[in-house]
Design goal:
Rossmann fold, five-stranded parallel beta sheet, 2 domains, four-stranded parallel beta sheet, 9 strands, single chain, alpha/beta
Length: about 325
C-alpha cells in the first residue's frame, strides 16, 4: 500500500481494509505496552485544515510523533492559497518537502467541491494524500469506528446490526461518515441499516456502489425512515447528523425543525435495542440535541474509546502508505 492515497474507502479492497484494521490493533497494543514503533522516522506529514478540528489535528500530530516523525499544521491564511496560488502548484511544492499530505476541507463550496480538491491535489502531488474529512467522506473516522465495533463484538461483528441514524441538529453538517460507513460495511460483509427522514437520502452513487459490492461480500445494507422500528434489536446505534443533498441550506434548516424532538437518541431507544448495544458518535457532542446526556454518558456509550481509536487507525494508515 506504500504510496497509495487514502481519500475514499471505495478505493480499497476488503483485504486492504482488513490489513489496516489489523495494523491498527497491533499498533494500539504496542502503544499500551509502551513498545517503540518508530516506523516513520524522519518523515514529515503536512496537514491542511480548511476548518477547525480537535480530534483530527491532535490525533494526527500525536500519531506522527509516536511513529517517530513530525506533523506540520497549516490553515489557509498561512499558505499562499490565500493569495490564489493554485492547488496544483501547492501540491507540487509541498511534495518536494513532505512525505505525505493530509487535507480537511469540507463545506468549502457546493457539495462535491471538497472531494474535487482532494483528487486534484492527489493528481498533482508525488506523495500520498490522506482525507481528513471532506464533503463526501471521512475514511479515517470510519476506520476508528470499525476498530471500536470489533473491540466490543469480536469476530462476530459482521453479524451484528449496526444502525446509523440521522439526528436533528441546528447545524448543517456533512454526510461523509454515512458514505464511508456504507462502503466499509459493504466491503467487510457487515449488517448496516441507514435510518433517516425523507429528504436526507445518501448520495445515490455511493448507495449504488455499496449495494453492488454487497452482492459479492454478502453484506446486508438497508434503509429505513422509521427510527423507532430501526433500533429494535440493534447492537450499535450510531448517531450522525448531516445536511440534505436535495435541499438548499436555508430550506433544510426550516424543514428539519419538524424532526427536532422525534429524531434524538434517548435512553428509551436502548430499551428496544439488544441488551448489550453500544452508542457511537464521532463527536463533538451536541448534548441534548442529537442525543441526551443519559446516552452520551451512559454505560452504552463508547464515544471516548471511539475517539481514541482515531489515533491508532491513523497510525496504521500513515504507516502503510508512507
Amino acid at each position: 500500500m506504500k504510496g497509495r492515497d487514502f481519500i475514499s474507502l471505495a478505493d480499497f479492497s476488503t483485504e486492504e481494509l482488513e490489513m489496516i484494521i489489523e495494523t491498527a490493533f497491533d499498533l494500539k497494543r504496542k502503544t499500551r505496552r509502551r513498545e517503540p514503533h518508530l516506523l516513520l522516522q524522519h518523515k514529515t506529514l503536512g496537514m491542511i485544515f480548511m476548518q477547525p478540528s480537535t480530534r483530527t489535528r491532535i490525533s494526527f500530530e500525536a500519531a506522527m510523533t509516536q511513529l517517530g516523525g513530525h506533523a506540520q499544521y497549516y490553515s489557509p491564511e498561512t499558505l499562499q492559497l490565500v493569495h490564489q496560488e493554485s492547488w496544483a502548484d501547492t501540491a507540487q511544492v509541498m511534495s518536494r518537502y513532505l512525505d505525505g499530505i493530509m487535507i480537511r476541507n469540507y463545506l468549502i463550496g457546493s457539495y462535491g467541491e471538497g472531494r474535487k480538491v482532494q483528487r486534484w491535489v492527489a493528481e498533482n502531488a508525488s506523495v500520498p494524500i490522506i482525507n481528513g474529512a471532506d464533503d463526501e467522506g471521512h475514511p479515517c473516522q470510519i476506520m476508528a469506528d470499525l476498530m471500536t465495533i470489533i473491540e466490543r463484538f469480536g469476530p462476530a461483528y459482521k453479524e451484528k446490526r449496526v444502525v446509523m441514524t440521522w439526528a436533528y441538529s441546528d447545524r448543517v453538517k456533512t454526510i461523509g461518515q454515512v458514505h464511508d460507513m456504507m462502503e466499509a460495511s459493504a466491503l467487510l460483509g457487515m449488517n448496516l441499516t441507514l435510518c433517516f427522514p425523507e429528504g436526507y437520502e445518501p448520495d445515490s452513487k455511493y448507495m449504488t456502489h455499496a449495494l453492488k459490492v454487497a452482492e459479492r461480500t454478502g453484506a446486508n445494507l438497508h434503509t429505513s425512515h422509521d427510527l423507532e422500528d430501526a433500533v429494535k434489536g440493534a447492537h450499535v446505534i450510531y448517531v450522525k447528523s448531516y445536511g440534505s443533498l436535495s435541499m438548499e441550506k436555508e430550506k433544510d434548516l426550516e424543514y428539519r425543525k419538524a424532526f427536532k424532538d422525534k429524531w434524538r437518541i434517548e435512553r428509551r431507544h436502548f430499551g428496544k435495542a439488544d441488551r448489550n448495544a453500544i452508542f457511537m458518535h464521532a463527536l463533538p457532542a451536541a448534548r441534548g440535541i442529537e442525543a441526551t446526556d443519559e446516552v452520551y454518558d451512559g454505560p452504552m456509550s463508547v464515544i471516548f474509546d471511539e475517539a481514541e481509536n482515531r489515533l491508532h487507525a491513523q497510525k496504521a494508515v500513515l504507516s502503510l502508505i508512507m
